[in-house]
Amino acid sequence: MANLKTTERKTKAQSMGLHTEVLTGKTQQKFFNPDEAENFYYWGTYDVDFNKRIDLDVNDLDCKEANKKIDELMSQGYGTIVIKNPQGKHSLGVGVLNKLNLIFEGSLGYFGVGSIDGPTVRINGRVGWSCAENMMAGKVVIEKNAGSCFGAAVRGGDLICKGSVGARTGIDQKGGTIIVGGDAGAFTGFMMQRGRIIILGDVGINLGDSMYDGTIYVGGKIGSFGSDAIESPMTKSDVDWIKRKLKVAEIGENFDVSKMTKVVAGKKLWNYDALEPTEKKGAI
Amino acid sequence: MPKKKTKKSSKKTIKGQLGKKKESAREKMIGQTIGYRYDVNLLPDYSRITPFLKKYIEAMGWDDLNWLEDVHMGYEEDRPAVFDRNANGWVTIPKKIKLPNNQQDRDMIARELLVKFQMSPNHPLVDLKKAYRKF
Asked: ipTM higher than 0.90?
């Protein structure tokens, strides 16, 4: 570990005292009062009004300028921002940590709306590779098709594609829900660790390959199961939950959910040692 | 012939000890204990949602619990706790909060507490943001 005390020039973080602590333990004592005033925003984000709406034409802006402009508009209290002429630009709408209604009137390129935490996004077109990568929370609805790696490493929230998606959908997924109205490509749910994927159409080969945990529901045909992916019986809780989620996603109104195939990890690839065996009983 | 005295074993079995507790079918199949501190695949029961969470969903403009569906009550250092992904650590539940027996109810309490903690000015991320954020 670097000896931070010998650093000659103090950074802002050091002057705030963040580096003076000896990093010996894992426990951090941080206290707060659960009864403190109700607040639904992260520190440093904006209290926006959904009824305050503005159009933003990004035709002449590059992605960095467009994203800064979105941030600027949020700081002015705009809660509904309509992006005109996105023209397939890459990395639009990334890193929004705010509640917001963000509407794209057109298609997005690669890595659109990545790392978002909270906004409701509607894209009235198609999206390229890795849409909503690393999404933390919120809702993203894509009206047409999506490219490969749709929802890569998603950690939370609802990611909905009304059309079909490419290969490796939900790769490395760590939470949240991905819903696809059409078909999905090969290696759907590849190495997923948590969360849920709902595919109403068919899926390609190697479904759920090397999945660690999580659940995949498929309405159509399955090309083949991947390594350690196994079928599991549908429960009433699954059916009720899928019906509710499809309602949220505004698709599959008349879809017969009870006939879906549920796929989970067989966990034969698990490699745990003796982890946390006794604590739970004492704690709860 | 007098009966031979047998000593009672002084070993105590701890409930939940590895290898002694009741294993789930999945654990039997894979031959090892599942290391999660809660059932990651448990779907939330919306009939048990708290008024605070209802307000939070409304404020965010969502239709359901959204990312909080993946939040469950676990444990840390023998105390009930909820994992905060933003701080990458466990937030232990204050002792004054009495926990119900039902996991679904416990999960709702965990969700409420986590939202309050993450939005609190005392959250560790606030200091980090002040120090490091670029824009």
From this structure: no
